[in-house]
Amino acid sequence: MTSPAKINLFGIPIEAMGMEEALDTVHHAISQHEQLQIGVVNAAKVVNMHRDPALREDVLSSDIIFADGAAVVLASKILGQSLPERVTGIDLMFGMFERGREHGYRVYCLGATEEVSKKVEENIAHDYPGLILAGRHHGYYAEDEQQSIADDIKNSKADILLVAMTSPRKEQFLAKWMDYMGVSVCHGVGGSFDVYSGKVERAPERWQKLGLEWLYRVKQEPGRLWKRYLFTNLAFIGLLIKEKLGLLK
Fold first, then answer.
1. Which of 63, 70, 98, 233 is the most buried (most CB within 10 A)?
2. pLDDT digits (tens, 9 = 90+) for 134-159
3. Is the bond leading into 168 cis (omega within 30 degrees of zero)?
4. Domain range annotation of the chain
């Protein structure tokens, strides 16, 4: 399958494709038994990649990287390399579920709490008949349990592995175990299981379209999140200015 052009933003090769093309790429990998590790970046991850060389290396090891955040898409326009649209991690996950219902994909869900993981299992069974949940495991495991979890994923013969853990932990897990597990498609979905289980409310669609999901999260938990988003957004703007002036290393 021919890959659409990539554009280079902040030293990160990002796919210049929309959601349907992304899902076609996933389906091609599964049908051809090819390996596809998916990465997504938003403003916070771009900033953290420039602060953490190990995270940067892990993200750049992905086969394809999508722009999850509206700020990244806006930056592409400012820099004259316009991305067609956001391909958010959570919407890509739901798209995989929908395609999986049609094609009988086998999905393994790793991450979140046991309560959330169980609710995701129930929701998948209800919402996506035909999609096969090959297995699941919560994300609160000890480091010495990684081998047994990787064994479980390998033995499940899953087509897709969804990893709902925070960065850089999810990137580190995939970097270490991707080849061993033999899964066609690996996708780090962050807090998507919390949203799908109903534990966390996602921003309304109008907020999503305006690229203000981050502001909705601040509105939900202002005391915990306002400083994080303020300083992250300022750091991202700083990187954007440097990139525009050709000063970013």
1. 70
2. 999 999 999 999 999 999 999 999 99
3. yes
4. 6-197
User: What's the pLDDT at 3?
Assistant: 54
Q: What is the rounded distance in angstroms from the CA atom of residue 195 to the CA atom of residue 70? A: 19
Nearest 10 degrees: Cα torsion 84, 87, 91, 97? 100
Residue 108 banded pLDDT, cuts 50, 70, 90: very high
Asked if residues 95 and 85 have their Cβ atoms less than 8 Å apart, the reply is no
Q: Map residue 37 onto helix, strand or coil.
A: strand
Largest CA distance in the chain: 51
pLDDT above 80: residue 93 = yes
* Per-residue model confidence as pLDDT tens digits over 21-70: 999 999 999 999 999 999 999 999 999 999 999 999 989 999 999 999 99
**Which CATH topology does 6-197 take?**
Rossmann fold (3.40.50)
Judge contact between 141 and 113, C-beta under 8 A. Answer: no
Rg (the chain; Cα; Å): 18
